[in-house]
Fold this protein.
Amino acid sequence: MLLIRCPWCSEREQTEFSYHGEAHIARPATPMDQTDEQWGDYLFFRSNTRGPHRERWLHAAGCRRWFNLLRDTATGQILAVYRPDEPAPAATAG
C-alpha cells in the first residue's frame, strides 16, 4: 500500500486519493487561436518521463483538496508533496 502525505491531513493510504495527471500544464491563453494540432498537443500529449515527475492529486476521501506530488516513476518513491500555491521543488531523484 502506497502512503501519501496530504499537505492538510497528514499521511493516508493511497485509496483515499485520486490521480489526475501531470501537474503544471498551462492552458493556452487563447484556445480559439490554437490550430487543431496545437490544441491536440495540449489535450493529449504529456511528458511521460521516467524518473522524477510532477503529478496532480485530489484527496477524494478526505479533505477534498488538490495538491501536487513529485514522484519518481521508475521507483515509485514520493520525493515531495506540495500545495498548488507553493513553488514546485526541483525535479531531482532523492
Notes: The helical segments are 36-44.
